[in-house]
Amino acid sequence: MKSSGYPVSPPLPNPLPVGEGVNGTAVMQYAVDVGSTVTLHLALTLEDGTVAESTFEDEPLTFTMGDGSLVHGLELALYGLRPGDTQRLALYPEQTFGLHDPERVHRLPRAGMPADIDLTPGNLIVFDTPAGEEVAGTLLSLDEDMLEVDLNHPLAGRRLVFDVEIIDVVPAGME
């Protein structure tokens, strides 16, 4: 198909009239879409019922779709939802934090660790890489000389139940 030479306009937002506002004007709700600013409550629950993270008893999360605040698989579950919508999905590790990678489990020398770090197995420890980046790891075990640290995301390899309630959606460009 040949281009007309005119710039292509972005698609119009996908409003859904949901009632009357002031002076009889329609109140619109928009569906979650690329670049939308979304305010929501979410919970990530392990298969055994343990809640790994939840905002339902706290302030909701507000973010822009695609900004990296949520992993891609969680974002995909939101497209098309509107304020007031709720959803529950069971997600595989590949859709969330990935499979557990044994190559990301390392033995590190205990020497040089700051004395104020709590070296209790199960604790999350933050390390500085040679490039100056911070990396978090879960301490698996230790002996007099070495630490065994898992640098996988703590939820890697886990099936998760994702519960979400959409509170507000502002389309891209309408902030």
What would you note in describing this structure?
With 175 residues, this protein is an all-beta fold. It has 2 domains: 97 residues, Chitinase A, domain 3; 49 residues, Beta Barrel (Thrombin, subunit H). It has 1 helix and 11 strands; from the N terminus they run E-E-E-E-E-H-E-E-E-E-E-E. The strands form 3 sheets. Strands 3, 4, 5, 6 and 11 form a 5-stranded antiparallel sheet that branches. Strand 3 and strand 4 form a beta hairpin. The longest helix has 5 residues. The chain is elongated, with a radius of gyration of 22 Å.
> Which CATH top level class of the largest domain fits?
Alpha Beta
Distance between the termini: 34 Å
Overall shape: it is elongated
Task: Detail the poorly predicted runs.
Answer: 1-12
Strand content: 35-45%
What would you report as the Rg, rounded to the nearest angstrom?
Answer: 22 Å
Biggest pleated-sheet summary:
5 strands, antiparallel
Helix-strand pattern? EEEEEHEEEEEE
Structural class: mainly beta
CATH topology of the largest domain: Chitinase A, domain 3
Count of the domains: 2
Mean pLDDT over the full residue set: 85
Total helices: the number is: 1
Helical content (DSSP H or I, runs of 4+): under 10%
What is the annotated CATH architecture of the largest domain? Roll
Number of strands: 11
